[in-house]
Write the structure tokens for this entry.
Amino acid sequence: MTSIDDNLATLGITPVGSKAFEPFSLREVAKIEEMIGVQLPETYKWFVMKYGKSMFSTGADSTPSQKPVNYCCFFGFEELLTAIDCLKETLPETTIPIGDDSGDIVLCLGIGRRDMGKVYIHNSGWGWHVDAERYVEQGKPVPADIRYQVVEEIAPSFEEFIKNMKKDEEAS
């Protein structure tokens, strides 16, 4: 994981709410995995067990498809549990929220089937409920993948997400 550590150091990874990183314990990781019913992707598990609730000391962007996505804070343990519970009816069931930008953007991680390990963004302004209602009103079945309308894939893995991150001034 050295290359990820190097990029995180370059981005200025820093703890949030304390002077030192507060990594997740094995027990906390096990509780999350029990809650979601699957094991977390290894690179993300490594990340939370090393850094926990963290952010970048300078702005950092992931630049999928030439669209900069400013990213702020990775959730701590309690925040992660709350976010998973609060967004379970909005996000695809094969993703969980793992951080946010203190605004409309939520960073999500694929945890199942075709999504395992992929990184997505979710803008809370996007919705699928209205579209689902239209299908029902027209007497049509609601597409099984309708929840994917609220997320956009930005990296094929958590490791690639971190490797693709650049300081704001580098991404411009």
